[in-house]
């Protein structure tokens, strides 16, 4: 602040390079923070889910000593399946909650600031439309996956800790639980899944929602859903085919065959084979990212023209 | 230094022409009132100046092209678009944090100082504040920014007379100095009569009057004519005539004061009276939009 204001008198009309560097990151940082102020569900929704999971986990903890005795006769794979199920369930639910928040957030954010007229307040400050839209896009792309990851790490650690206490209290060994869970690998797998699928593969989905949000004058949800539906119906009637729906399914399914080779139905378990090179060389990823860039550019341009509605 | 310079500014929404070749020039250190009926093009003109809407024609604000350089321009320009634009979910402390975060010329201590004079609590959300307090908050944020140009579009709409008076008083005493420039639009013209240095009337997308307040006071005189002098007064070609309590009140442009004094009581007209005279002379205009015009 102070160093900045010292340079002011001579810098009018020709902002120096130092303020330019400052202006690139600070407005972005504060724009992200203001999204967290406005949309508290970004962290409250996954936290609430985590709370419910912990409550439910009590019913896993109570019979845990019996469960351990029962699974001790099983082979390793079945042991894992039995013990890890609540942990996978927790990770999946939190990830699902974060994804749901991503969808609703992306659909509302650029529409909401026009609806409550606050867009003119934001535009009265030296923050470009590009910075604003990038900050908003970073919520589903970076913030929510990271929130989901951190909450999952914390809740799984708590679950494991509580389980260990229960087992030790009833005089049982925690070795089977700790070795079979392989929490570290599972969490690494989760992180990989979040980065590849939720950040990169789903990027065009968020960008489409942001674009609709910047464009729609009312009911952004309908505008997000109806055009794809119209394309599908047109294709079915005109060509008796459904390539477009197949394309959407391919996108929503998370490009799973490219991300990892599957051994089970749950996308993140220690047995799976991560195939990052396969993922990076899949055309679906790069086509998606091009579409993402195009949609986001359009959203930036639209915001420039838009005022309150 | 010229702060705003527009030449042939045009803007149409479909077939509606909002700005029809506006030329204007605002120098540094002026307080310009842009007065016009609803739909005259005031807000469109301000939006063009602020880079919120694209336009045709030539426009430079502080040497910049507002439409293409809005974010850089906003380092030197502040505006209060309307009383309702502060987001309702934001806390007062968050609003201060955010503006301090993104605006290199925001003086937080100054804003806190302005807020200390009000009843606004730091932990309150905007939705919990009264309309007058929201305006006080917005003004505190804006006045703490060391800007060269401040644009106010109906800043006191819906506020009671006490808040309105306080608003302009603090603007003059705590903010305005000769190196700053203020452009304000309002329907409450009586509030700003003694605030402005320059006056501009806009109607149907055109500037119909452009004068400084010194010119205004020397050019325009209003005479409450003695009944026996009405014919003589009319011979001096008043630009407007109205009846109040059976007396004729005539408004003159560039007529000698001594000459008028012989006909009745002479005074400087209010902006509202001149507005009615200028707008009302053209058929089809809705001049009654300005508050106080009928008094």
What features would you describe in this structure?
The complex is a heterodimer of chains A (309) and B (295). With 309 residues, chain A is mainly α. Chain A has helices at residues 2-6, 8-11, 17-38, 41-61, 64-71, 76-115, 119-123, 129-169, 175-181, 183-201, 203-215, 220-239, 243-252, 256-259, 276-280, 283-305, and strands at residues 260-261, 273-274. A two-stranded antiparallel sheet of chain A has the order 1-2. Chain A is globular and about 70 Å long. Chain A starts with a helix and ends with a helix. With 295 residues, chain B is α/β, with parallel strands linked by helices. Chain B has helices spanning 42-49, 70-73, 92-102, 108-116, 131-143, 161-175, 189-192, 213-219, 230-234, 257-261, 271-280, and strands spanning 2-13, 16-27, 31-35, 56-61, 77-80, 149-153, 181-185, 198-203, 206-212, 220-225, 240-244, 247-253, 264-267. In chain B, the strands form three sheets. Chain B has a six-stranded mixed sheet with strand order 5-6-7-3-8-9, with helices on both faces. Chain B has a four-stranded antiparallel sheet with strand order 11-12-10-13. A three-stranded antiparallel sheet of chain B has the order 2-1-4, covered by helices on one side. In chain B, helix 6 links the parallel strand 6 (149-153) and strand 7. Chain B starts with a strand and ends in a 15-residue tail after the last helix. The chains are: A mainly alpha (309), B alpha/beta (295). At the A-B interface, helix 3 and helix 7 of A face helix 2, strand 5 and helix 3 of B.
């Amino acid at each position: 602040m102070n160093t900045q204001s010292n340079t002011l008198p001579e810098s009018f009309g020709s902002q120096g390079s130092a303020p330019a560097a400052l202006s690139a990151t600070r407005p972005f940082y504060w724009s992200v923070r203001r999204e967290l102020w406005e949309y508290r569900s970004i962290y409250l929704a996954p936290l609430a889910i985590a709370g419910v999971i912990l409550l439910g986990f009590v019913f896993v903890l109570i019979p845990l000593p019996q469960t351990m005795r029962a699974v001790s006769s099983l082979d390793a794979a079945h042991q894992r399946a039995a013990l890890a199920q609540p942990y996978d369930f927790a990770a999946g639910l939190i990830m699902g909650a974060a994804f749901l928040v991503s969808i609703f957030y992306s659909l509302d954010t650029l529409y909401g600031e026009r609806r409550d007229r606050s867009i003119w307040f934001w535009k009265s400050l030296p923050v470009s439309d590009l910075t604003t839209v990038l900050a908003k896009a970073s919520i589903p792309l970076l913030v929510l996956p990271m929130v989901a990851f951190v909450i999952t790490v914390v809740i799984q650690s708590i679950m494991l800790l509580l389980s260990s206490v229960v087992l030790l209290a009833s005089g049982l060994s925690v070795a089977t639980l700790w070795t079979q869970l392989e929490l570290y690998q599972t969490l690494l797998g989760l992180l990989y899944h979040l980065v590849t699928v939720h950040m990169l593969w789903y990027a065009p989905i968020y960008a489409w929602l942001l674009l609709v949000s910047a464009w729609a004058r009312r009911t952004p949800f309908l505008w997000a859903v109806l055009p794809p539906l119209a394309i599908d119906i047109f294709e079915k009637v005109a060509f008796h085919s459904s390539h477009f729906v197949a394309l959407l399914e391919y996108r929503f399914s998370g490009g799973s065959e490219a991300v990892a080779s599957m051994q089970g139905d749950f996308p993140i378990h220690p047995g799976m084979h991560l195939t990052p090179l396969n993922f990076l060389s899949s055309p679906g990823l790069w086509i998606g990212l091009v579409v993402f860039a195009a949609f986001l550019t359009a959203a930036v341009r639209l915001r420039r023209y838009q005022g309150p509605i | 230094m010229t702060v705003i310079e527009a030449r042939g500014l045009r803007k149409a929404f479909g077939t509606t022409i909002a700005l029809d070749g506006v030329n204007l020039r605002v120098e540094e250190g002026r307080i310009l009132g842009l007065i016009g009926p609803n739909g005259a093009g005031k807000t469109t003109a301000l939006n063009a100046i602020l880079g919120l809407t694209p336009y045709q024609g030539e426009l430079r604000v502080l040497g910049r092209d507002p439409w293409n350089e809005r974010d850089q321009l906003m380092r030197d320009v502040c505006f209060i678009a309307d009383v309702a634009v502060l987001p309702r979910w934001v806390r007062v402390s968050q609003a201060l944090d955010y503006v301090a975060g993104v605006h290199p010329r925001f003086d937080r201590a100054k804003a806190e100082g302005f807020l200390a004079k009000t009843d606004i609590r730091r932990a309150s959300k905007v939705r919990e504040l009264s309309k007058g307090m929201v305006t006080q908050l917005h003004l505190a944020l804006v006045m703490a920014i060391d800007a060269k140009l401040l644009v106010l579009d109906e800043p006191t709409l819906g506020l009671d007379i006490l808040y309105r008076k306080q608003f302009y008083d603090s603007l003059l005493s705590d903010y305005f100095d000769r190196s700053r420039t203020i452009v304000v639009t309002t329907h409450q013209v009586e509030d700003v009569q003694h605030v402005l240095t320059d006056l501009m009337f806009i109607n149907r997308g055109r500037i119909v009057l452009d004068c400084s307040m010194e010119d205004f006071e020397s050019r325009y005189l209003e005479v409450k004519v003695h009944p026996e002098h009405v014919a003589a007064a009319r011979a001096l070609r008043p630009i407007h005539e109205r009846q109040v309590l059976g007396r004729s009140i005539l408004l003159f442009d560039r007529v000698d004061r001594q000459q008028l004094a012989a006909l009745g009581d002479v005074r400087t007209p209010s902006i509202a009276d001149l507005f009615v005279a200028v707008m009302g002379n053209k058929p089809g205009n809705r001049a009654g939009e300005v508050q106080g015009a009928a008094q």
